[in-house]
Specification:
With 1046 residues, chain A is an alpha/beta fold. Chain A is 29% helix and 19% strand. Among the domains of chain B are: 86 residues, Cytochrome c-like domain (Cytochrome Bc1 Complex, Chain D, domain 2); 105 residues, no CATH class; 58 residues, no CATH class. Chain B has 19 helices and 5 strands. The longest helix of chain B is centred in the middle third of the chain and has 33 residues. Classes of the chains: A alpha/beta (1046), B mainly alpha (462). Strand 1 of chain A pairs antiparallel with strand 5 of chain B, so a sheet runs across the interface.
Chain lengths: 1046, 462
Amino acid sequence: MSQNKYWGNFGQLSESDASKKAAKNEFGEDLLPLEEMSKGTLDTKTPRRDFLKYLGFSTAAAALAASCKTPVRKAIPYLHKPDDVTPGIANYYASTYVSGGDAVSVIVKQREGRPIKVEGNTRSSITGGGTNARTQASVLDLYDTSRLRHPLQKSGDDFKEVTSFDAFDKMVLDGINNTGGKPVVLLTSSINSPTTREVIAGFLAKYPGSRHVQYDAFGNSAMLLANEKDYGKRFIPSYHFEKAKVIVSLGADFLGTWISPVEFTVQYAKGRKVVDKKPVLSRHIHFESFMSLTGSNADDRFMHKPSETGAVALALLNKLGGNVSAPSISDAGLKKGIDLAASQLSANKGEALVVCGSNDPAIQSIVNAINEAIGANGTTIDHGVSLNYRLGIDADIVTLANDMAAGNVGALLVYDCNPVYSYTDGKKFAEAMAKVPVTVSFNGTMDETTEQCKYISSSHHWLESFGDAEPKTGYFSLIQPLINPLFKTRPFQTALLKWSAATVDDYDVFFKSYWENKLGGETNYYKALQDGIIEPAEGASFVTGSYSGAGMADAASKAGATKGGNLEIVMYEKVGVGNGAQANNPWLQELPDPVSKVTWDNYAMISPALAKTLTGLDVLGHQRDADNYEVHPEKPVIKITANNKTIELPVMILPGVHPNTIAVAIGYGRQSANADKSIERIGRSATGAGKNAYPLLSFNGVTFTRFAGVTAEKTATKYKLAQTQVHNYAEGRPVFYETNVADYKKNPKKLLSHIRQEKLNTTANGSTDFVKDATIYPTHDKPGIKWGMSIDLNACTGCAACVIACNAENNISVVGKNEVARFHDMHWMRIDRYFTGDPNNPNVVYQPMLCQHCDNAPCENVCPVAATNHSSEGLNQMAYNRCIGTRYCANNCPYKVRRFNWMDYNGSDSFKDNQRPMIGSLLNEVTEQMNDDLTRMVLNPDVTVRSRGVMEKCSFCVQRLQESKLEAKKEQDPSMVRNVQTACAQACPTQSIVFGNVNDPKSDVSKIRKDTNRSFYVLEQIHTLPNINYMAKFRNTERAIGDHEA
Amino acid sequence: MSITVEPKKIKFCWNFVIFLYYVCTRIRNFSTLARTDMSEYKKLFNKSFASLLLVLMFSFPVIAQDGEALFKANCANCHKPDADFTGPALQGWRTRVPEGDWIYNWIHSPAKMIETDKTAKEIFEKWKPTVMTPFPQLTHEEIDAIMKYVDDYAPPSAAPAGGVAAVGAPQSDNTLLYGILTLVLALVALILLQVNSNLRKLADEKEGIKRGEPVPFYKNKTYLMAGILILFGVGGYYTINAAIGLGRQKSYMPTQPIYYSHKVHAGVNQISCLYCHGGAQFGKQANIPSVNVCMNCHMAVKEYKGDPIIREDGIQVDGTKEIQKLYSYAGWNPETNSYNADKNGDGQPDGARPIEWVRIHNLPDHVYFNHSQHVVVGKQQCQTCHGNIQDMNEVYQFADLSMGWCVNCHRDTKVDFLNRETGEGNRFYSIYEKFHQDIKDKKMDSVTVGNIGGTECQKCHY
């Protein structure tokens, strides 16, 4: 039986020799780059004798210095121990992750007063306990070494400390009062906090003529404007993907970055999960210009140029009976897609939903008309509850920039936004700021905008502050501090209260009295803080909204008339770094992008066809070209010119990108105006990571346009991209199983039949016991607990929240770009992305891959010192202090999940110049950032920090398993270990990862594994007996999927 | 023959030096930071948001109506039966307080009684500022049992003998004797060998056999080789033992900032270990008590009046002076019976600072040890690992805390396995179906920690 071919890159597709060779050389162990050494070292006389002398002296000295004296260690107890802190025991508090309008209800784990891990709050009906990568990573931002530590005042080119906030307030107020009546402008990100809105209202009342501008770097301005016209209200209604049987997305990356990705992922998974073995799935049809996370999950996916979004929307509306004329579409595939979408939508009226990521109000109006036509309003769209994540209108910031340039602004107060970086013409914005007499920043770090301000009053991190958010109307999420402020910072709201001379001038007091009034008393307030959320009762029926269609009047003509070019560029947000606000977060920078698997950079994402014309590399046609491109991390650089601005970026050739499109991520290229100070001000991680693509956005008079016609040419230079999935892949082995729903319904047994047959073939004659009789090794009992995990490939969207959760839980080292490029990345959990099918528009599958904890593990047999061995609970144990670093285990692991500490990633400050060896590659700045005493506060004290020379890998979060067993033994209740959650399972918004005791038939894992038609173990036919089972993937499409193709 | 080696006396043979270098760098790397001690973060929650945070409530369950146990668990921290302590001596209480329910009410809610009752007010006036702790969880029967124990109490006739030296005292050591004997025998053997060789030489001469000049024994290659081998063996033995002992510090007894005598507190005054080291019930750290815990009693106990405390070097310790040191750390003024004012505004009395105890028991950073696992689940006594702490003036490390020591105990110790017939034992173990069957089939009679995986790597190393 033929197996579907899954490939990770073009070299694997063509199965070229160089690619195979590279696969063998798993860790890229080249010889030491001796040519980098200075000549002197090699040419010196008598190096041998000197070498022996130095060796003798240094070993003797080291032995003397390190061995002879017992160090005196102190144990210092509290002076007064707080009642609620028991050293060694974690406390958990509800709070809310907030950043630029995003809000996710979370539970924060605190150890000895330090927040160390963020989990989703299961009480929240919005996220249901789900999180995303950015939420998981935000705890590291608290310990960011580039955070501002006290109030500052501009002094020449630099800043000097202001001794007290009183002195600071006086300076600023003197300034504001002397602006000669010019208005004060408050420039913030989208504010959905009710208390902050009230504080701002009070401030604006105190300064007549002043105004509040909300600015989103990558917002939803077009939707707000279109809805204002069509529904008479400037808002975004709430979407319910779980109610839709057909989902059509026009470039909306709703699983990755669009509006409220965690919420939508949770809803989407509800419609995609197989319940009671019945494959009833929603159908997802996706139109886009490049490969996004959401597009890669779609059942059917069609490509168009970025400028054609309007045409596609119009054609769809036309097919659904709308009274519009659609411009002609020449692409046959796209035409077919529109027909398919239209037929599916009209067949499922009232159970369908169309969403669109365009920032053009005309197109959004057309989408409104489509949703009206298919009866989405009131069924899959609720107009009664609005989404308040992005409230900014693009035109406001342009007006503000012009006002400032004209000298019409008296004071500018900036909070939680960074327009000098993210505005289309940041330089002009900075120059305009210089004309404002008083500029104050409340941002947490010395970012591009803050360094242009005269006064800086840094605000708390959300983990240090009180606060609230109303991400959906009526759904509140509260913030409570987890730690005393680390630095001399102050809430932004307190400053506003003080400056507006309010009677209550402390935000914490204001916050408490606001909610006590609203909730009726202190008891209710504390209860709400403890829960973290305040939500209306469920069951309210959806509001249909009154559609007027006013926006359609000129939308049809505008949307159809959009001009592009032969070659177009489109800007997008990445799942990890997003709009750039968290760009200095090493975890997010090192997170491989779900689709491209590139870390630490942005790039020009182009199709193989465009690569051929642009760079001369024919990766599909020529094996040698594929090798040249794939095997070396150095990629050709192209120069892109759009709107008279140029940007030079390395190319990343990906299938599934429209041949006339270049896609570039925003959020990279953070840099101080004074380049020498970038590392100090912007941060060690953000500096040097990628190029800034915001300047390529353009203002069209209403909104920012996110695409443009461009010219591009190849340059002579090359640039190194650190990509993870050029190594550790499956090498053509059958690791993934998928099918389409119709085939499965016909014969469910067929899907995994070939595994079954192979297992039967390898079992000794006459026996059906594959576990015992297909091996020469003895089997071992698991008398009490046997831990097991199940991963549902059908529900997994590849969002990578689990990867960051694992980072935070298990003290995973950040290694930096150079080391990733040498395949030395340390992630215990990776998400393998495979392409299959048509190389121009392939299907994409995601497979979370971590230690499989094989009961007959190939790694255990080969360890010469028994540092890795098996536990009676089915864990593949790794004893770091026993490991001597032979790496036999990694070599023998068929899943390539073992990680070796090639360098001293965690002890870089223990010796001077420890990370600056004379030869070999240098570690990036980020390892120093991660080893700062401040950053180290994020470490989980229950997990050993590994040092150089030892192997490590997923432990199934053994610290959590041990803790759960201890609690169960104390309570004498074995059911407490039934469904333990590992960090990845807990973070997963789709609950596709389930963990527990498989010896217990009542556990969730045991129940899931009963579906034997779908449940398989990766490479189980080689008798590794893994403890992780995967559930095969479904695609709800008529296209042939799975083993139909040779 | 027992051999003890101090790490300082290491012979530097080459192999060992290289090996040691490797070990040293490895140890250094491991210990850099993994489990940071609490001092670093202490500052961060001195001003914690106590009022907002959830308070975990724990109660101390009382299992039996055992007067002595109840007394020790609840009362002994402040009261002695026969002498005044933090609170009054309890014997003769019947003559001092009204009959009937008074004693129950008093124990259940002293604060309420002080407001309303005359006798209670008098007691409070006499002992203030210390206030009796309420024990609302004690039932009348339990209180009766405690008071009966108090009434019946008679002081033990003889004080326990011995000080620190009691444990690990040197046993009679015959090493020297054996050594001399070996030397003498070796000398005799050497002389006999020489005699033998001379006699053979004479015999040879007599028989006319010619032999070369005899080789002196110090040039004899056999002797030399034997000598080298013996040196290598003995040297290697010492070297390896020393290497294994690196970082181990059994019997470590550092000088502490305050001469705190466990013998006085846990031995003579019988304060429960968990009163100060309460963390042992809940989590991995047993915790050294914070200064406010010390002050619970020492607000009232101002001087040391017990038997003289003699240090190891024979010098007598002035207990009262040590209590004065505590006051200095706590920022307490014994003259005025109050804490110093907080003039510098740091939220603590002026002069107050935490005590920097020297840590005695150190496990390497790559070892996870949980006190509650052993104390609550395993029901181990503190003394099992810490020695007879109630007899130690200054604490020293009793066990060598090596992995072999841990593993040996895990191999032998039986878990509180559920007995399906009687229902006794920990119900958690009901899931070990195989062992239940084996016990039923008489294949095994008990389940040890090792049986349930207690000797596997990742029980302690992760």
